[in-house]
Amino acid sequence: MTSVCYTPWKVPRVRVTQVSSCGQPVTGACSTVTSGGIVSIAMTKEYEARQEFFVKNGDGKFCVKETNPPILKWINLVLTFCNVDPAMLNIMTAEPLVYDDADSPVATGFSTEEGSAELANFALEGWTRVTGSGVPCTGGTEYGYVLFPWIVEGTVGDITHQNDMVSFIVNARTKSGSLWGTGPYFVDLSDATGTLDQNIALLTPIGALQHHRMFLTRKAPPDAVCGCQPLYTLTP
Question: d(Cα 167, Cα 165) in Å, to the nearest integer?
Fold first, then answer.
């Protein structure tokens, strides 16, 4: 079986989508936010430690030498942004929004409230630049596509207001059992002869035990837009 080798670098765009407490994408007028203000996505896998079963016989020799392998519990995420989009922060942390008094109120900030983290459920997609591809480009710019289909317990990290820029950090973790399926978005272009360059969603659904997926895509990321956007059906 052949494969394509490449090196991801930079992260020009992320998209956050609200999901339900069951891990299913939520449709509505304010369900998703796309941002170019991402600085970094740091992921650290957390495992239940290896369990060992080593037993010696009466002669001091091992008669049992077995282990249960480490089990992935979740992936810890640290998401760093160079600007704050109140709508995106609300989806990621469930912190309540603060609105102005315009005729059509606009979200201008957020409040920090006890208990918000237990209400946070979202998915995160990211697009990376790629270099060092093992095959010639077949048309259009290629990107690395990263998906965390179900993220919970989002909290706003420490903030320092000073004579400098303020970075906003969201800490969270992934969860298994996502109902993302093949997703509510088109995220790739077909390479098959009969459907070449047509928009396609994930080719295989996210499995119940899958926390993360990454692959190469020729479909460009969506444009960054301040504020939330509607999600009703599968969209290009």
Answer: 7
